Q: What sequence folds into this?
């Protein structure tokens, strides 16, 4: 991955969405009568989504609007850290299917058609199935998880996701005793995803990621269908993405169409491209540098060129209490 300077559009510290404004908007969403379109909400809530390219407003299917309105807010918070402005979370993205510049996904991901959407669950499960997204989501209540997101490129954000634990899905589909890993696959659709047409030839599409089964069972690991109290923006991986906050952002695969339970450790996309730089585990670790840059610090966005918002990176991105035991006895310099 390439490190780039912040775009000229990076906001100032004063532009950060005040937590109180975000919270009050969220409460409004929570108390909104079922069936009212998220895009029809008054105030900054509707306006801020509508004005960004690639961020749909009002196209959310009714079943998802209803589900979002019943979200259990504040299920996990980032302990007082400011939520990254929606503007930055939807305009500074990595989604190589839509281009390699940070602004490309925001500009190009409008071509992604997220409705209808099919999700296949297969492999080592007692209950394999092919679902419409609505049926796939039916058993699960949505929860809000405000998580730090730390990219391997040394920038970070704080994002309020809306999703459900992968452990709930695994209980539904019943992995067999042979299942040791879970493999995720992004949509392959070169017509809608210009980056897949050849552009970034290094990637053997579709984008693939994986977790060990016990990592996927950790309560912090979620599948997200929303952010900032609304549906996921296309550039952030609509309509379904993985979020594993103790790992570098590249593990959080977007626009998932296939979830397979497998015996062997899957080869994830970035590991396949540069195995000396990106591993399977990709746990956030300030003590293990990337071969080309330090991982000890990160730029918390928004971060201006003249007032960089730099902070120390935390082990497991600050989630050690919840996940360190998954790796006891492992050498994290070898299994990076
Ligand atoms: N998923 C797919 N399918 N394609 C990608 O290029 N980029 C990854 C990850 N998921 C990527 C992906 C990387 S490198 C990061 S840092 C995060 O998405 C960025 O998520 P965000 O754009 O929502 O911040």
A:
């Amino acid at each position: 991955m390439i490190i780039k300077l912040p775009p000229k559009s990076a906001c100032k510290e004063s532009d950060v969405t005040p937590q109180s404004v975000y919270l009050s908007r969220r409460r409004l969403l929570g108390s909104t009568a079922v069936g009212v379109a998220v895009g029809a909400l008054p105030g900054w809530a509707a306006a801020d989504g509508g004005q960004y390219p690639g961020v749909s407003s009002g196209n959310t299917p009714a079943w998802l609007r209803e589900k979002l309105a019943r979200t259990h807010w504040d299920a996990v918070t980032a302990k007082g850290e400011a939520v990254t402005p929606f503007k930055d979370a939807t305009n500074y993205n990595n989604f190589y299917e839509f281009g390699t510049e940070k602004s490309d996904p925001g500009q190009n991901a409008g071509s992604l058609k997220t409705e209808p959407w099919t999700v296949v669950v297969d492999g080592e499960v007692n209950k394999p199935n092919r679902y419409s997204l609505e049926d796939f989501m039916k058993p699960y209540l949505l929860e809000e998880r405000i998580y730090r997101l730390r990219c391997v490129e040394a920038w970070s954000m704080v994002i309020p996701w809306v999703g459900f634990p992968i452990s709930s899905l695994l209980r539904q589909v019943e992995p067999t005793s042979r299942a040791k890993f879970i493999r995720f696959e992004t949509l392959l659709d070169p017509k809608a995803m210009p980056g897949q047409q050849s552009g970034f030839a290094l990637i053997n599409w579709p984008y693939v990621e994986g977790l060990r089964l016990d990592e996927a069972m950790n309560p912090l690991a979620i599948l997200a269908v929303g952010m900032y109290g609304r549906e996921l923006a296309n550039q952030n991986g609509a309509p379904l993405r993985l979020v594993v906050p103790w790992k570098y952002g590249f593990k959080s695969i977007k626009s998932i169409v296939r979830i397979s339970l497998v015996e062997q450790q899957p080869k994830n996309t970035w590991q396949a491209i540069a195995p000396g730089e990106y591993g399977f585990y990709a746990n956030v670790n300030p003590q293990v540098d990337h071969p080309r840059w330090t991982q000890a610090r990160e730029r918390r966005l928004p971060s201006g060129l003249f007032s960089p918002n730099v902070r120390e990176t935390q082990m497991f991105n600050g989630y050690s209490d919840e996940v360190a035991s998954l790796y006891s006895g492992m050498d994290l310099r070898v299994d990076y």
Summary: Residues 93-97, 149, 151, 186, 207, 236, 249-250, 252-255 surround MTE (CB under 6 Å). The chain is about 20% helix and 20% strand. Residues 3-15, 30-50 have pLDDT under 50 and may be disordered. The first helix runs from residue 19 to 31.
